[in-house]
Fold each of these.
Amino acid sequence: MATAPNLSHTPVSDEILATLREGFAKTAAEHDRDASFPFENFSALHEYGLLALTIAPEKGGLGGGLSETSRVVAEIAKGDPSTALVLIMQYLIHAGVEKDRWPGHLRRHIEAEAVSRGALVNALRVEPELGTPSRGGLPVTTARRDGDGWRISGHKLFSTGSPILSYMLIWGRTEGDDPHVGHFLVPGNSPGIRIEETWNHAGMRASGSHDVILEDVAIPFDHAVDLRRPAEWNGENSVQTAWMVSLLGSLYDAVAQQGRDWFARFARTRVPSNLGAPLSTLYRYQELLGRIDALLLNNRILLQDLVRRTEAGAPPPASETLLLKYIITGNAIDAVALAVEATGNPGLTRNNPLERHYRDVLCSRAHAPQNDSILTLAGRTGFHQD
């Protein structure tokens, strides 16, 4: 996982990000309403090289570090948060490919594919029987040896970006009494893969997080890119956790900022006849906007500090970083909830974007690890330190 910005990297211009943000915002409500996947957004991202943002310049990418990547995610999320969520998965995998774990030719191949044709990749982990792997247990998805390769069978849930994935990192186990667990790199167009369009969520409706069914899917032997005994997956990776929390935090904070801005415009322009002045002149609305801004200021400071420490090579311990996820996403939800409460029916009507922002920001609670796991880990760590 990259820990510092690449000195040869040229930051993505504000003009490019504004163009993408504004273009994505024009279709975000339509994609949300229809739960349709925004393929056109990823064509635009590829046009500007942003699907290869975290790939090194010498490999054809843009070489963005965590600070730049967080900035890009936040701006894209202001246009269409579902697009930003798919983008995060791409960034995390390309920033985190470990040289000593992946076969070199596979690492170079997916990097080249991302650069040349905008190929996307995501790790598919959640299963009906297992739930999220962060709570422990072995996956039901199984890889069996077949000559010089593997045959993969399983069922994955909440597979973000599934309609557009060129590669799927499938979390599975090997057959036998002493199974190894890890990732198998499966091309998305492999025979035996079926996408069931089950995603009908309250928020992030355009993320294409459908079910993926694998039935005896054949892959080469070296596409088992990282297999370990189950206990070997229990180690802490503080840098990877910091990247995950920084990017998800940037996404949901950006959604909350959009909710905040809509509320401010509403209060400035709404002039009730019995008041004869904008709602923004009322103490109650001024106090509410101050509370919202305090929550988002807290988020900004926490995210900036996390990014700074990580890029300096000293990320916080994973348990502490996960507490930041709990705080930042909680602040984002609370900020939008305050705006919804203050605006009443206008805030909840689907003709206004605040209702969509509220549904989207609530999805922050679903990302593993969930709040109960985060707080339990923090409490267990705290008791051990005393």
Amino acid sequence: MRGVVEVVAKPKVVLGVSGGIAAYKACELLRRFTESGHDVRVVPTDSALHFVGEATWSALSGNPVSTEVWESVHEVPHVRIGQAADLVVVAPATADMLAKAAHGLADDLLTNTLLTARCPVVFAPAMHTEMWEHPATQENVATLRRRGAVVVEPAVGRLTGADTGKGRLPDPGEIFEVCRRVLARGATAPDLAGRHVVVSAGGTREPLDPVRYLGNRSSGKQGYALARAAAARGARVTLVEANTGLPDPAGVDVVHVGTAVQLREAVLKAVADADAVVMAAAVADFRPAVYAPGKIKKKGDDGAPVVELVRNPDILAELSADRALPGQVVVGFAAETDDVLANGREKLARKGCDLLVVNEVGERKTFGSEENEAVVLAADGAETPVPYGPKEALAETVWDLVLPRLRPTD
């Protein structure tokens, strides 16, 4: 008896491309979608075709490319493309495209598709800094987010010509990660839309001399997973990272720091208007009392020098005790090597945070891994175990627990 082969439908993605110099980067985004098993229909604007031709989009996607409402009218493409999509992503999204989408204009196939789509929609803006910061663009972005679209923050970097600033299209690989998470959530609304969250990641380094430091094994991957998950759920995300070496996540404002004191300064500044802060960074408890301006030398047989340590500020306890806004949710992490839950409960009470993610760490556990296992302890006594699995699964659980604790929006 012959077996039945089950045919699994590929997720249908519409890749909208508007007319900006960053259009060429959308080719890499398209490649990532097709190679991961998505059925992609590219819908460029007429302006986009000045940068990348129709033949390129068709060859890379394996699907026909249309720009006009009046092409193939028997198929009603301006209705059918949006209706059939599981995800619509516009990358790059110019200021003009954001304005049209926010105001419901429909003068070409892409804007018609946006109006007919009932699936999640992601915009990846790219434009000059002045255009991004203009009040009209910011109001359009706010309108789109309020309606449920995910508008990722543009990256900071080199723009056209000699200009540098915020407005650069995020790395296509990072845009893909946002889209993958949005697709996984399906029709679920971006439940962190309109919220600002702060996440810390990585491990601080406390200088001893110009070539040595006290540090830890934290890779920052859990913090980055938290930042990416929040961005995919519609939040405005500030990521304070310490010494990770990881690429900036798409749609996230990244602040790079080195030491515990620098991390404290950056976090306290960022949380001034934040709804929640998640302290996933491994912050050094101590730092050398004296920084040697020159490399410390071995001197004969005098033995090793004695390094005096002083305590670093307790950032998590400070955030919990002096919240920047009423109802601000504070989440901490506790990396333990023994008596994990007992030490975690004691730390939760001592730090005063709302949630504490407790996990067992070691040389071959958690640090640097793509997986994690934890128990999330709550100040009200609840305990949520998260089984061993990808760090993004733990990240989603943390935001699921943060969400009902957020103060109501106006």
Amino acid sequence: MNKENEVSRREFIKNTAGVAVALSIPSIIPASAFGANDRVRVAVIGVNGRGQDHIKGFSNLPNVELVTICDPDNNILQTRAKQYAEKYNGKKLKTENDLRKVYEDKSIDAVSIATPNHWHSLAAIWACQAGKDVYVEKPGSHNLHEGRKLVEAAHKYKRVVQHGVQLRSSVALQEAVKHMREGLIGNVYMARGLVYKWRPDIGDKGVSAVPEGLNYDLWTGPAEMKPFSKNYVHYDWHWHWNYGNGDIGNQGIHETDMCMWGLGVDSFPEKITSSGGKFLWNDAKETPELLTSSFVYPKEKKIIEFEVRPWMTNEEGGVGIGNIFYGSEGYLVVKGYDYYETFLGKEKKPGPTRKEGGDHYKNFIDAVIARDPKMVNAPVETAHLASGLAHLGNIAYRTGRALTFDPKTEKFVGDNDANTYLTRKYRAPYTVPEIV
């Protein structure tokens, strides 16, 4: 890791507490200069699932004009355009199947990316190269290598990049982190991340013909081309290594990010262990249903424990999805995206508590208008670090052994096999570029 990257990490912790159709890489387009009354023109890329909330979130902001939506499935795309027109007094959105056409449009200021995981980094990097500011869903990367490339691209092209971990914009959770920084629960040495979500049997639908209206080549993008299957198009790609990262890399990114934010760690751990597997369903999922991971920071004397459970389970401290932070003088519980409570001393006396959210989309737009990347609550470094923590846990599971990691080089120590999981073979022309 060079000194510039180390500095950016320190700044990240400090500041976040409170193509061309011809298949070439997009050229850089000068950023807009926004005035007080200007509206930011936004395109949403990927509108099947999470992208619907992006459409709603940006459409609710007075200084934003949603102009384009993009999806390789034309059936979904046209349905969303029709729904938008019905909801917003007949306003018509431009529709595109190929995100590279969106990046060619010089009138678009920012893009919001809600594609499957395997597209996140490449779509965001191409957007930065095309002069667009970027809101990118979690996880910001599908593997560790491309997460680092995204950080480099954001800085090189001077783009505002917001990672879609909206808990960073919660007023309550900002207050919770402030309490931990100020010593409310003493020396905070451990964080637990919990993802107890109901994940049923998905069956095995086998191979079938590509549905009419779906550009399957575009949908596959940088991933290995495999025969089409409803096992992964459109939602269950989460549970296949070619496209997703399991639940630690899905819902879990909110919690991995909260763990790192709350503990105040600004680098990757040195020791990683994971165990788990598929114990319930004999279905098409490849990723583990159950996963328990430990991430140790020996120099900082801190540890992150993370657990994914898929079915019947108790909650811990009232938490099914969230975090628990342990300190020498008490513990702090984070429930969901906007609520925390504290328990102090041996008697677990109730301490400060608060429930209040925030507007992550507005925070992004405010930073775009101000042309100030430091204003975003979830800067590009979180896309690399929080996502990367999940990747490390998955690699320990896939290799089946305890791993030692060097945070400076971002490589495993003496383990060539584990290092092969840090990147992937990209399918041309959907290749993550070197940023020089």
